[in-house]
Amino acid sequence: MPIWAQAGLWGLAAGGALVVGALVAWLSNVPQRIVASVMAFGAGVLISALAFDLVDEAERSGGLLPTVAGFIAGSVAYLLANLVLARGGARHRKRSGDQQPSEHEQDGSGTAIAVGALLDGIPESVVLGLSLLGGNGVGIPVLAAIFISNLPEGLSSAAGMKRSGRPARYVFGVWIGVALASGAAGLLGCLLLEGASVQVVSVITALAAGAILTMVADTMIPEAFERTHLYAGLLATLGFLAAFTISRAG
Fold this sequence. Notes:
The protein contains eight helices and no strands. The model has no long low-confidence stretch (mean pLDDT 82). It has helices spanning 3-27, 32-62, 64-90, 109-131, 140-163, 168-193, 198-228, 231-249. By secondary structure, the protein is an all-alpha fold.
């Protein structure tokens, strides 16, 4: 199977975790504290994958300056896009409580939340695709980190959508669409950059990593801390350690 096809399938699989999380939230009433606990763990997993797999690899292959430039650019790009979406009603798109506005409360918030979900998922899928370019298969620590973090993301956000009165067709339309877009992003990331210089791949990897870290700080950690309070730090630490162990054991 071509590498770009593998990248698309892995991106789809990682994005599918969002759909699984949304399905669990829709069919059952998972306590918000449990959702937030898994969210905290997932945040720690993602941070570890960023530090030891993405940014470290980008710096070793492309150099410090391209990595720093890409990382900052990704963070700023995500911030600017998130500011626009927040004004449209998507600021609390990963919250499981009553923070998400309904369409009646804020016109256009449904579209903003959907676009925000897409914004959160695309950088993760791009780095999955890029991890295949080395010819050693998909990066297992990165894949595990994305999958583990996507489950509580989909669960928490879908629970918030449900509480704000959004119908099932909207909720699952959003997450299935994001899963498909994740597959497409992984495919395109690999296809377009196949044969590119290591410096270019390094910059793109760092750019996606910067966007992911900003997303974790802006959307995942607030939800985790609000519901778990003093336990959030410990759970994130355990997630970090789990991902680090997977990385080193591989």
